[in-house]
Input
Amino acid sequence: MFSEIETVAQELEGSGSKTKGYIQLSANRPLTLVLVQEEPLKLLRFALKYTPTTVLYFDATGGMVYTAKNKQDEVYYYAGVINLSTVHKSVAVCEALLQKNDSRGINLFVNEFVTWYVNL
Output
């Protein structure tokens, strides 16, 4: 699985373009994929406008999604989530797969989200 993810990241990194609507930032070694879609960001903007108590929280537990023999190849999952209290649903508005559970990767993730949200 890791080699397949790494191959996609290499292709995206070399292409110089972004996949419309989902993969917005990619890097290889360490693997860094930041996933943002326009629709959830619009939903967040709508929720913040009409329900001022809406909270966006980042699930920074670094839950591992891929366990490898080599600790350096482990992949962690992060998400920016809002709770839609009126329909009792949680929605991920941005996500990331990071090979390193460190502040550099988390900072890239949050900065990419903020850039997309501001430019929406």
Q: What stands out?
A: The first strand starts at residue 23 and ends at 27.
